[in-house]
Structure formats: structure tokens, C-alpha cells
Design a protein that fits this description.
The protein is about 30% helix and about 20% strand. Helix 4 packs parallel to helix 5. The chain is built from six helices and eight strands. With about 180 residues, the protein is an alpha/beta fold.
């Protein structure tokens, strides 16, 4: 797959998401390993890497700046070409401006990975597609958590990830795997 004008965008791979008591049951235990493979693969090809950090403004959030949970997980290692701070779901609404940065470098695509599949990753994919970027959504390098439905039933993390993939594929993004991008 041609990635020459593509940046890897690593979304919210932060320590706070390790707290199962806070977030609930997660899916995809291979997420972080796949994120690491993507980082290594992009770095080996000298392709740009963007790290996105959620800096929550909610007083009780484990993602608040100054909390250990705000730190990147160990898999997010080494230098990045850009680090974005955001307080909402989309990396395109963070600081500095992701779209402007991509355009200033003639980058036309982004490969998205991170946490959570159906929130910040999906929102960023939708906005990226709407802004005209080629979005590769690396589903096996994301994870999410079980979530209560309005009727009180539980929607599993796997079901949420599968639904996100169905919602995005072909309209906002192309769903891909880590192996397809970096072997």
C-alpha cells in the first residue's frame, strides 16, 4: 500500500485507559502491540507520526493534565513529528491544527489508530474524510469498551468496533489492518 503522503495519527494511547474499574471491559488486547508495530513501521520508512493526547477539562477525569492517566502509554515511544492536545473527540479540533499541518507538508492521507474505536478515532476519521483526506482506519490497532445502551442492555466492545467499521468503510475511510500497512 502506498503510504508516501500519509501520516500515522496515534490517538489517545494514554495510561488512563488502563483503568478497567473506570472504563469497563475492553476488547482487542492486541491494540497496543499493533500501535507499536505501526509506529515502528512508519518510523522505519521515515513517514510522519502525529501523537494526539486528550487533555480533559472535566474535574474528575483520569485524562486531566497533571494526572498519571494523562501520560502516553509506554508503547508510544520515540520522537513524533507533531504532538496535538485536544479537549474534544476529534484530533482535527486540537492544537496545533492537524489539517493545516498535513496540508503544509502536502500530506493527503492519514492512518488512524488508538483509543477509543467508536469515539475519538471514529470522530477523527469522519472529519478527516469530510475534509478530503484519504483515511486509513487501522481497526486492529484500536480498542474500545463495553457500553450501556439506552434500554439498559450492554453493547459489547467488539460489537461497537464492528459497527464503527461498518459506519466508516467506503464513506469516510478505508478499514485496514496493521499487517496491510506495515507487514
Amino acid at each position: 500500500m502506498d503510504l508516501t503522503r500519509t501520516a500515522l495519527v496515534v490517538i489517545d494511547v494514554q495510561r488512563a485507559f488502563e483503568d478497567a474499574a473506570y472504563w469497563g471491559k475492553r476488547n482487542n488486547p492486541d491494540c497496543e502491540a499493533n500501535v507499536g508495530r505501526l509506529i515502528d513501521g512508519f518510523r522505519a520508512r521515515s513517514l510522519p507520526i502525529v501523537l494526539v493526547r486528550h487533555d480533559s477539562v472535566e474535574p474528575k477525569s483520569p485524562l486531566r493534565p497533571g494526572q498519571r492517566g494523562n501520560d502516553f502509554k509506554d508503547v508510544v515511544r520515540g520522537p513524533a513529528d507533531l504532538v496535538i492536545s485536544k479537549t474534544v473527540n476529534s484530533a482535527f479540533l486540537g492544537t496545533p491544527d492537524l489539517a493545516a499541518w498535513l496540508k503544509s507538508r502536502s500530506l493527503t492521507g492519514l492512518a488512524l489508530c488508538g483509543i477509543t474505536t467508536n469515539h475519538c478515532c471514529e470522530t477523527t476519521a469522519r472529519m478527516g474524510g469530510n475534509l478530503g483526506f484519504r483515511v486509513l482506519f487501522v481497526l486492529d490497532a484500536t480498542h474500545t469498551f463495553d457500553r450501556a445502551a439506552l434500554d439498559g442492555t450492554m453493547i459489547t466492545a467488539d460489537e461497537l468496533a464492528r459497527t464503527t467499521a461498518a459506519n466508516l468503510n467506503g464513506e469516510f475511510a478505508q478499514i485496514v489492518t496493521t499487517d496491510q500497512l506495515v507487514g
